[in-house]
Specification:
This protein has 235 residues and is mainly α. The chain has 2 domains: 88 residues, Rossmann fold; 135 residues, Homeodomain-like (Arc Repressor Mutant, subunit A), CATH 1.10.10. 57% of the residues lie in helices and 6% in strands. Strands 1-2-3 form a 3-stranded parallel β-sheet, with helices on both faces. Strand 2, helix 3 and strand 3 form a beta-alpha-beta unit. It is globular.
Length: 235
Amino acid sequence: MMTAHNWPELHGIITSHHADLVIFDPDIDASGLESALRLLEAFPSIAFVLYTQLKPSTARLIHRLAQRGLMDVIVQQFDDNPRKIQGLLDEIPQRRLLPLVLLSLRDQLQRLPESMRTCIEHILDMNPLPRSADAFARDIGVSRQHLYDTFRRAGLGSPRRFVIGARLLKAYSYLRDPGRSFGSIATAVGWTDPDALRKYLEQVFQMPVATLRQTSDNEALVKRIVHWMQAVPKA
């Protein structure tokens, strides 16, 4: 968890770190509402939550921000408690495409040992994601060979493609943010070469990145990436 003391500092944290949830006080400085609106417009992939006092101006503030995608509101001294924060954290995965992919692979995932399945779902919700099958196996606590054998028996395809697919889904979520450059997206998802990420995205989703930025057909995107993740690579 990181803390910003003004809007430029908050903007810097968002662009240079993995941020899924931002809880902000509009009174952080004088530019308040307009600065918050600009952030919501620039980074729709992030869950923004308003932290405010209960006062006459609050309703108008919430209305303006909700029109731009505000996720939730925490009212000081009423619901600013650990249970509320945990509830917000639990909601974040549902905003992404990855849960839809896991749902599509539900039958195959059910064939895995329960402990491995739970561990995989937890790891794929982490930042940063594993960058290789070896790292994935280490995070789960099994050997690389055991991971490959288990995935093959379950019909899940290659662990390598599974990990790459998860990183591409993260990249797709960032592509929807006008406030992110493609280079910064590549860095955020672990690609040192932006051109390599571009080729993967276009190969897997079967469309140019510029088109992908504007695409919201989640059903089609899920079908394409699941097909790619389960396909046997050509020799």
